[in-house]
């Protein structure tokens, strides 16, 4: 198996065939070839041997690889080669886990109203509002749909206990109604 991989890697350099033709003739995918080529460049013949055991990487190397990717220093492939990783899969998993924790944040009722007003009054696109407020596009679209059908009260977080509309104070109801009317007037002007 190792000799076959080596023959393909070295044979591609000597042949006049295109890469895609060579891959088809050998019956391998382009990504498989590139991965084998990277292993060969990193570890020589040892890199081409199949790994049946789990490789434990030093946590400092993992941290450096993740920070290199998050700082846009290079692509996952380049980072894999630079840090001597066998695949990008584990690195991708670690990065996505990290990003989930970074991106999630609690958005208050007032912030939701401000975001909806930012879109409706200023005629901004969802994507621009998502960047401006650091919230996902899907979440903003969902809030806009809820607001158009049920008004601002629909933006209330229903997790846990919330006041029903009937139990809201008159002042709270009037503030919401006033805000909605202002938005409707501005939309009609446009």
Outline the secondary-structure elements.
Layout: H1 2-14, H2 19-26, H3 30-43, H4 45-48, H5 59-70, H6 76-83, H7 89-103, H8 109-122, H9 126-133, H10 137-150, H11 170-189
Explain briefly what this protein structure is:
The protein is mostly helical and 190 residues long.
Folded structure, characterized:
The chain has 190 residues and is an all-alpha fold. It folds into three domains: 1-49, no CATH class; 56-103, Arc Repressor Mutant, subunit A; 111-187, no CATH class. It contains eleven helices and no strands. The protein has helices at residues 2-14, 19-26, 30-43, 45-48, 59-70, 76-83, 89-103, 109-122, 126-133, 137-150, 170-189. The longest helix is centred in the C-terminal third of the chain and has 20 residues, at 170-189. It is elongated. The model has no long low-confidence stretch (mean pLDDT 78). GO terms for molecular function: sequence-specific DNA binding. It comes from Lactiplantibacillus plantarum subsp. plantarum. This is Transposase.
């Amino acid at each position: 198996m190792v000799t076959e991989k080596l023959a393909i890697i070295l044979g591609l350099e000597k042949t006049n065939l295109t890469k895609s033709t060579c891959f088809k003739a050998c019956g391998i995918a382009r990504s498989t070839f590139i991965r084998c080529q990277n292993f060969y460049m990193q570890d020589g013949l040892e890199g081409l041997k199949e790994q049946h055991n789990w490789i434990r990487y030093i946590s400092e190397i993992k941290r450096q690889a993740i920070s290199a990717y998050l700082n846009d220093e290079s692509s996952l492939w380049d980072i894999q080669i630079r840090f001597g990783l066998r695949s990008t899969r584990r690195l991708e998993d670690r990065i996505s886990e990290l990003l989930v924790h970074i991106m999630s944040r609690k958005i208050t009722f007032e912030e939701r109203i401000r975001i909806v007003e930012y879109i409706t009054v200023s005629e901004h696109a969802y994507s621009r509002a998502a960047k401006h407020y650091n919230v996902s596009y899907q979440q903003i679209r969902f809030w806009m749909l809820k607001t158009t059908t049920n008004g601002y009260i629909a933006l209330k977080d229903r997790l846990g206990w919330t006041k029903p509309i009937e139990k809201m104070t008159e002042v709270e109801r009037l503030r919401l109604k006033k805000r909605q009317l202002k938005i409707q007037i501005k939309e009609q002007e446009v």
